[in-house]
Structures are given as C-alpha cells and as structure tokens.
Amino acid sequence: MKLDVYGESLCALVASAALASTGHQVVLHMPEGDARTGVLAGDCPFREPGLSEFLIEQQAAGRLQLADFAALPDSEEAVIWLALLPGQFEFAQRLLARLPVHPQRLVVNQSTFPVGSSELLQKALNSAHADGSGAVVALPDLLTEGGALQGFLRAEQWLLGGEEDWALGLTTELLRPYNRRRDNIQRMRSREAEFTKLAITGMLATRLSYMNDMANLADVLDVDIERVRQGMGADARIGEAYLYPGCGFGGLKFSRDVMSLAETLVEGGMPARLLDEVLRINERQKELLFRKLWQHYRADLKGRKVAIWGGAFKPESARIDNAPVLPLLEALWAQGVEVHVHDPRALPALRAWAGERADLVLHEDPYAALQGVDALLLVTEWKPFWSPDFPRMRAAMREAVLLDGRNIWDPAFVQHSGFVYYGIGRH
After folding, report:
1. Cβ-based neighbour number of residue 316 at 10 Å
2. Tens digit of pLDDT for each residue in 359-381?
3. Residue 247, CB-side half-sphere exposure with 13 Å CA sphere
4. Residue 85 DSSP label
5. d(CA 409, CA 254)
6. Domains 2-188 and 287-422 in one fold
7. Is 71 helix (H, G, I), strand (E, B) or coil?
8. Does this model's pTM top 0.70?
C-alpha cells in the first residue's frame, strides 16, 4: 500500500520507517530545516537507538522517500498519516481540505493535538470529500524517547479512535504486523482515544509527584523510601511502575501532555487542582538537589566548584526540554558556583541553551568533570553511571560529597567508600 506521512516529529520518523519495513511504499513529507537535511544525509535528528540505521535501510530499499511538506499525495494513494507538532494543526486542516478526492480516504491522526482535534480534522476532510467517503481516526502517540522504535514495532498498547468501521478496520490492518503477540488495539471514539492518552500521562505524572512527596517526608521521618517503594509496589492494586522518586521529571511531550490535560479540565469548567499541584510538586523537586547542597555547605556556595552527571531529561535522549538540570544550573550560577557537566548525549543541547559562559564547563569524560569539585550531583540515571569507579571519583574530587538525584547508588556502599551521601528519601 502507498502511504503519505506528514511531520518532522520523532513519531513521524518512527512511523515512516516502521511502515516501510513491512512492505508499504511510504512518502515522508517534512518541512525544510535541520531535521529534513539530517534525514536526507542519513543522520537522524533524534538520538533514538536503531532509528538512523532503520531509516537508511528503508531508503536504500526504495520503500521510503522524502517529499516537500506541502506537496499533496497522488490521487490514488488512500492513506494519509499525520504525525505533526502542536503548532501545526492549521496546516493539517488546510492539507485535508486540499486533498484530491479518493473513494475511501483514510487519515490517521497521530499528532500531538488537543482532545477533539480528530473531529475538527474530519470536518476539514469533509470539505474535500463532500460525499463522506473520507474518515479520520485518532491513533494517539504513546511512544517514549529512548524506546520509540521498539515501542512501535512491539507496541504494548494502541489506542484507536474512530466512528467509521471501515476506517477502523483499515487502520487495524496497517497495524497488524505490530499486533501479533495479542490483540492490543483498544477501539473507542476518537475523542475518547485522545483523552485516554492525556489521562494516562496525568496518572503517571501524579504517581511520580506523589512518590516525590513521600520521599521528602521519608527524609523528615528518618525512613528509607526504597523499602517503602518496594512495599507499595508489591501491592497488586498499586504495582511497581512510576514509583521511583527523584529530582523531578522533564521532557517536552510528557510535561506538555500534563499541561494540556489541565487546560482541558479548565475548559470543561472543572478546576485542575490535582494536576496543578502535581506540576508544582515537580517544579519544587527540581530544586531539591540544590537545597541539599545548600544545607550541606551551610549556605556557603560562592566560589565553589561542583560537577553534574546527566543533563538530558531522561536516559537515551539528547534532549533537555524541561529537564531538571536547567533550574538546577540557574540556581547554582545565582550562588556563584562553577559547574562542570557531563552527559553522554545532551552536551550540544546544553551548549546551545546556555551559550558560552565561564561558569559552565562541559566534559566528554565523566571523570574529567570531577577534578577538584566540592560535590557531584547526579541528575540523569544513564546506565554508565550506575557502577562508576568510586575510588577514582574520590581521588579526583576535592570534597567527597555525592547527591544522588535518582537513588541509583546504595547509600551504605557509597558511605563505606568514603563519601557523604544524600539521596531522595534515602539514608
């Protein structure tokens, strides 16, 4: 089957490569810019494991080609796949209104748009297909950075929303190669699918903020939050997922979805008190490592030198959107601290965000960042950080102070290695 995919998002690239890999002829429409230039050069703009090689493979096989963003599909091509960014909704409406007539036009909306957007896109499509021969279905983007490709190829869940049986059936056929272990497609109305996606994100964010509050209380009560977490996770009514306290969550899509859900509640006439508090807790949590450092040095931080391991908002990502490291850096700079940062992938993004400044030094080597520092703050739990060379760290640092923002180290072992240890609700 021939498909046209529109977008420059991670979802657009993953969907294009995945659909092409199962035999479809895919045309990917991308706007001019760095992302398109990168894909044409075989350099994926996202540091997503396996995606660059996958895109190159599909282009070399002739199943994936690029086209202009505004170009319309051929009249015989039935399927349009939208994986657009939030600010491109009007473009999507204009595009659908201009589509050539097709006896059975299917539009799959996997874009990051508000609840009800698929219904509005259906109205735009109807202006080009006045006979009602076209249908829009909602297939919300549930992909997570760092696992997006496998999240599509071996999806645990698909939310599929639509009102036309034939459109739901055709979309199910498109997803069949990624739906073989069990039927993991949940069918519902389009706005129900869109809302479910936001509700999932809101629940996960709530669990994270709740656990962060519990970890902060554990500090006050002299309780180890790790034992509490394990006890909670063993309860079948709760489960283990998203019960790990830390120094705050980030990410453009995750944070944006929580805010979008809060806005949806307000627009529906309901106060978003719970989600507002979830977001406030998260922003406070991003300051926690700074407060612990401030207390350790009794408010005497001016002229000190600290290291940070991890700048990306999550492991396996090069992005720093709403990342906890950003307010942490600003708080440290405000106190006259010189900061040395290492991250496996996010250094270019940090350099672009901060610009050239004397109080920020970026290091490709994690141990080089530790030379002569008064403390190490771990912000992102990259796998190489889980079992570092503690004696080498101790020898490099001026003061052996570790602040573990993700609770990845064992407090007793670290303290036995000669460090002062601060975790999130750990002792």
Report:
1. 18
2. 999 999 999 999 999 999 999 99
3. 34
4. -
5. 26
6. yes
7. coil
8. yes
